[in-house]
């Protein structure tokens, strides 16, 4: 299974929902709090043209935020991405 990494910030409801979704599927993930590293946050924002958290990666692929991952799950494509 590909590694999942979720970049988050404290108090982010969508971050909590993303973590809950992966946990409900039994998928382990690594969480990184971007509020602790503003340089990394800015670098990721520039590289992926994405300004909000969560920022979710499956393997080396940036898949978007919670809405994107939730849509992949509803469409039956999330588990396939994890393999």
Task: Tell me what you see in this structure.
This protein has 83 residues and is α+β, with helices and mostly antiparallel strands. The chain has one domain: Glutaredoxin, CATH 3.40.30. The chain contains 4 helices and 4 strands. The chain has helices at 13-24, 38-48, 66-74, 78-82, and strands at residues 4-8, 30-33, 55-58, 61-64. It has a 4-stranded mixed beta sheet. Helix 1 (13-24) links the parallel strand 1 (4-8) and strand 2. Helix 1 runs parallel beside helix 3 (66-74).
Following the backbone from N to C, one meets helices and strands in this order, namely: EHEHEEHH
Low-confidence stretches: none
Helix content: 40-55%
| Euclidean distance between termini CA atoms | 5 Å
Which CATH architecture would you pick? 3-Layer(aba) Sandwich
Rg, nearest Å: 12 Å
Structural class call reads: alpha+beta
Question: What oligomeric state do the depicted chains represent?
Answer: single chain
The backbone outline, from C-alpha atoms, is globular
Question: What strand line-up does the widest sheet have?
Answer: 2-1-3-4
